[in-house]
Write a structure and sequence with these properties.
One of its GO terms (biological process) is L-tryptophan biosynthetic process. Tetramer of two components I and two components II. Pfam families: Anth_synt_I_N, Chorismate_bind, GATase. In the C-terminal section; belongs to the anthranilate synthase component I family. The chain has a domain of 228 residues: Class I glutamine amidotransferase (GATase) domain (Rossmann fold), CATH 3.40.50. It is globular, with a radius of gyration of 28 Å. The protein is an alpha+beta fold. It has 18 helices and 35 strands. β24 and β25 form a beta hairpin.
Length: 813
């Protein structure tokens, strides 16, 4: 007989319905001390029945998008429910499938419930034994089991009052009358569901009790371990790059020189050292946030070993450019290789941990020994564009993506930075970081001599700049453009902006791309871009600002306030999604405070934020030790120059064997820019948006040669390519969203960048010009005006905000 303490050895098969919350359930199952294997619903039933199920004690069927009556949405789950002989728990879509598997049906709920909470009442038996009455749960669904067509073999075990008609009970729990089959419509795994772990524990107790009846049976239950061939089926990711054989020890080491207690204007240094270079970067903590944005990093692509890599998914070719040699070559990726694999290999090959047999990087600090407080120890600085989704989501992809490339803009680009200047804005220190080949060579090479000359030159400029800015000679910004230079005709490229319906609850279906073309030489464009970035960081300082010039007229200027992901030297992964934004009232302190309080209490914004928090918890549970994933900060409202915004923080410890590149790939695209479930939402957004997003809504930052990473979400960002400027903005759509309010929020987000475009390029910002009524078909068209200050000519952008009722994917969040 199996005793209750043997629950330690319970083996759970978790069926993933291509959902973005499955690994939150995985975390609960692991914490309940079960062995868990995760497979997707598209494995054939006969294989599941014959090869897999004999090795498990219970089954959990995950939530998911769609309708359980559609085979493409539910896969083999109907057969699993009908024919399995071990306990089953269905969650959300899995719960609805219990009804349809036994002849019942589903129907639309009174209203969609996405990221919203409800009180659940129950029968205090089975799954709900010992739970309080009622308890608060989180719901993500627009379909429900129809109580009028409930099969005789099922009974209702939990319910909640309808939000439209409180007298009506909405089914929240089902139980089979003669089999150990259970379902819950709500999400026990959500961070805001009460007693979710208690519910999972009850399922484990039910399993233990049920298995005790099979003592001596022929089930494969004598061994509590899961065979390797079954473990190999799990969708938990392995490292994307594993070195073959023993890698040769690298001779590289790091030289870090510290200049203490200096007041240096980082923009002065960037203009003096790097702005004129063909390739340069500046990861700029324009707004200092202790513990979040203490450091700024800048550098170029000079030096013998430096290079730029640019990648386009359309050709699957990596272009490597060495500006100092004016040399370019292309690499065709292998069929089973992705750019993430390629960059992971580069990070490994240049990794400082390979410099010794103990995996401890060789670092020389000067003039004395000191602890290095920052994480970018040289490495790869760049961006990953949104269309890289076709490689990050390829393992779960069921059909080719339509928008697979943002060509001609590179879908990803990175600068190998072997020389970096660092500013510690908190301690008022500066650092010069340089990657060297030999430790203390007897006869330095020519490259090493150049490195030493560079280090001395940078130190001299830093000291002279510090002397200047510490006195009374603050630098004066001389505008490099003239009135004549600005008399360039501009044209606006219209874009279609669809807004998905309330029922579909899709994030970022509102997408705007304002684009203007300037007839300037590359040097003029770079100079004007620097003017624009100066205005942007001055008027809208943010903790994750950046200016990256990849060369050949490709420049990113960002005032992003949102952290996508960091991986620190201890392997701690952190994500800080932003969802919920309101404009500040800078003229009325009292009203500004009320606006902040209203955001803190907004059901709609909390629902948006909660969905993304649960999504990113899922992403981190995929790559982290599940016992470590936590939410130290939830729904915190932060204040910036022109906005209040709602931010949450999710953390976890990266699993052994995975790297920062693994972490970025497995969590890309950023959940705050897609919505949940991520894969299905990305597929639907392609039909809505009609064109690639490009740099916008991807991420930018660095991979350090010591294993750390720091990436921001690309929002509040201008992109210059081939003398064309584009600014992307979007909005998150939930069931409580108003199309006009979402449109206004999109304009608010654009307004953080467009004044800087106006300042530098002489183009007025985009403002709402006219708003037409929404017709009975649910379609709204909003013309927007853009005006050139030079030619005084109006250029109209037409946006089509299409608001259809989504019938085919009712559980898309």
């Amino acid at each position: 007989m199996i005793r209750s303490e043997d629950a330690l050895a319970l083996r759970t098969l978790l069926i993933d319905n291509f959902d973005s919350y499955t690994f939150n359930i995985f975390q609960q199952l692991v914490l309940s001390r079960s062995q868990v294997i995760v497979i997707r619903n598209n494995l054939p039933w006969d294989r599941i029945r014959d090869e897999i199920l004999p090795h498990f004690d219970n089954i959990v069927i995950s939530p998911g998008p769609g309708d359980p009556t559609h085979d493409g949405d539910f896969g083999s789950c109907h057969e699993i429910i009908k024919y399995s002989t071990i306990p089953i728990l269905g969650v959300c879509l899995g719960h609805q499938g219990l009804a349809t598997a036994f002849g019942g049906r589903v129907m639309h709920a009174d209203e969609p419930m996405h990221g919203r909470t409800s009180p659940v009442y129950h029968d205090a038996d089975g799954m709900f034994d010992g739970l309080t009455q009622p308890f608060k749960v989180v719901r993500y669904h627009s379909l429900i089991a129809d109580e009028r067509a409930l099969p005789d073999c099922l009974r209702v075990s939990a319910w909640t009052p309808s939000t439209i008609n409180p007298q009506r009970k909405i089914i929240m729990g089902l139980q089979h009358k003669s089999k150990p089959i259970y379902g819950v419509q709500f999400h026990p795994e959500s961070i805001c569901t009460e007693q979710g772990m208690n519910l999972i524990s009850n399922f484990m107790k039910i399993t233990t009790s049920y298995l005790s009846k099979f003592s001596g049976s022929k089930r494969v239950s004598c061994s509590r371990s899961i065979p390797d061939q079954i473990r190999a089926l799990t969708i938990i990711p392995a490292p994307i790059y594993s070195p073959v054989g023993d890698a040769a020890t690298s001779q590289r080491h790091l030289v870090v020189e510290k200049i203490q207690n200096v007041m240096i204007d980082s923009e002065s240094v960037f203009r003096a050292l790097f702005a004129h270079k063909p390739v340069s970067f500046w990861l700029d903590s324009a707004r200092i946030e202790p513990g979040l944005s203490r450091f700024s990093f800048m550098g170029d692509c000079e030096g013998e070993d430096s290079f730029v890599v640019k990648y386009r998914t359309s050709s699957r070719k990596v272009t490597t450019i060495k500006p100092h040699r004016q040399h370019t070559y292309e690499t065709q990726l292998d069929p089973n290789e992705t750019f993430f694999t390629y960059i992971a290999r580069l990070v490994y090959e240049y990794s400082l941990s390979r410099s010794t047999s103990t995996d401890t990087p060789r670092i020389t600090t000067r003039p004395t020994s000191f602890d290095i407080p920052f994480d970018l120890m040289c490495g790869f600085v760049g961006h990953v564009g949104y269309e890289m989704k076709c490689e990050s989501l390829s393992a779960a992809q069921r059909k080719p993506f339509k928008m697979a490339s943002a060509t001609p803009i590179p879908d990803a680009a990175f600068i190998f930075a072997k020389r970096v200047v660092v500013f510690d804005h908190l301690k008022k220190d500066a650092y010069i970081v340089m990657l060297s080949v030999d430790d203390t060579p007897v006869a330095p090479s020519a490259d090493q001599n150049l490195d030493l000359v560079w280090l001395k030159d940078v130190k001299r400029i830093l000291q002279s700049t510090a002397h200047c800015t510490n006195g009374h000679c603050q630098p004066r910004w001389i505008r490099s453009r003239t009135e004549k230079a600005m008399r360039a005709k501009t044209q606006t490229v219209p874009d279609t902006i669809p807004v998905k319906s309330d029922n579909s609850n899709i994030h970022n279906a509102v997408h705007h791309d304002s684009s203007s073309r300037e007839s300037k030489t590359p040097k003029q464009v770079l100079s004007t871009a620097l003017d624009m970035y100066h205005h942007l960081r001055t008027t809208n300082p943010t903790p994750h600002a950046s200016f990256i010039n990849f060369g050949d007229g490709f420049i990113i200027l960002s005032a992003s306030p949102e952290e996508f992901m960091t991986v620190d030297r201890d392997g701690v992964v952190q994500a800080r999604p932003i969802k919920g934004t309101v404009r500040r009232d800078l003229n009325d302190v009292e009203r500004d405070g009320r606006l902040k309080k209203e955001l803190e209490r907004s059901e709609k914004n909390i629902a948006e934020n909660l969905m993304i928090v649960d999504l990113l918890r899922n992403d981190l549970n995929l790559i982290c030790d599940s016992s470590s994933v936590c939410v130290p900060s939830l729904f915190k409202v932060e204040t910036y120059a022109s906005i209040h915004t709602m931010v949450s923080t999710i953390k976890g410890n990266l699993r052994p064997g995975l790297t920062a590149v693994d972490a970025v790939m497995k969590c890309f695209p950023p959940g705050s820019m897609t919505g949940a479930p991520k894969l299905r939402t990305v597929e639907i957004l392609e039909d809505l948006e009609k064109s690639p997003r490009g740099v916008y809504s991807g991420c930018l930052g660095y991979f350090s040669l010591t294993g750390e990473a720091d990436f921001a979400v690309v929002i509040r960002t201008a992109v210059i390519h081939d003398r064309e400027i584009s600014v992307g903005a979007g909005g998150a759509i939930v069931s409580l969203s108003s199309p006009l309010e979402e449109y206004d929020e999109m304009i608010l987000k654009l307004s953080s960048v467009l004044p800087s475009v106006t300042h530098a390029f002489g183009i007025e910002g985009i403002v709402p010009h006219q708003q037409e009524e929404i017709d009975h078909h649910g379609q709204q068209r909003i013309p927007v005006t853009m005006r050139s200050t030079v030619y005084e000519e109006e250029i109209h952008l037409r946006q089509e905000c299409m608001i259809p009722i989504e019938e085919h994917h009712p559980n898309v969040l």
